[in-house]
Write a sequence for this structure.
């Protein structure tokens, strides 16, 4: 069972990850809205990542298409030119941003749950999202992200718990950014 506090906390942390990794807070205008389902989604692919602990498994699905507005947005975030954004560079950019977004969620969850592991991104066809309900999630939420009125993503959060799951995050805490890879 996942309590309403835990659901709200997962949602909040994921939105913080979206804000810090899928948009440029300094120059982008953006809207992040909760949607009941994905009937309005037309993105062609998903970047899927998982975060696992002894108590739960989280799946984050970033729905995207390789259309011009999304290429332009990712080129800007990657500090690359749009002309350099071929299919491989585009997929690398979306995987990097998905990894950063999910990594932010994982880092924030690790303050409450010390033993967490995270997968690398996998790109699959959008039809795979139709199988989420077969996992019987205790919590599932869809977000629609529109950047600069042109680029559009949908992000799905799917949480399965193995035991009662209850926690609360401090929603007044300031986000410290997406973080960087640390070398020791």
């Amino acid at each position: 069972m996942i309590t309403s506090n835990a659901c709200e906390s997962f949602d909040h942390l994921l939105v913080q990850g979206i804000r810090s990794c899928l948009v440029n807070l300094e120059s982008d205008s953006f809207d992040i809205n909760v949607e009941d389902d994905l009937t309005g989604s037309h993105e062609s692919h998903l970047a899927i990542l998982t975060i696992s602990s002894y108590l739960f498994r989280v799946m984050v699905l970033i729905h995207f298409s390789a259309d011009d507005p999304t290429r332009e947005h990712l080129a800007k975030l990657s500090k690359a030119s749009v002309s350099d954004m071929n299919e491989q560079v585009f997929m690398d950019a979306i995987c990097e941003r998905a990894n950063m977004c999910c990594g932010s969620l994982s880092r924030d969850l690790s303050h409450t749950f010390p033993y967490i592991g995270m997968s690398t991104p996998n790109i699959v066809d959008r039809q795979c999202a139709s199988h989420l309900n077969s996992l019987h999630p205790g919590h599932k939420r869809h977000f629609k992200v529109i950047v600069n009125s042109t680029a559009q993503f949908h992000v799905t959060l799917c949480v399965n718990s193995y035991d009662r799951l209850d926690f609360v995050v401090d929603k007044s805490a300031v986000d410290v950014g997406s973080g960087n890879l640390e070398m020791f």
Notes: Residues 28 and 148 are 6 Å apart (CA to CA).
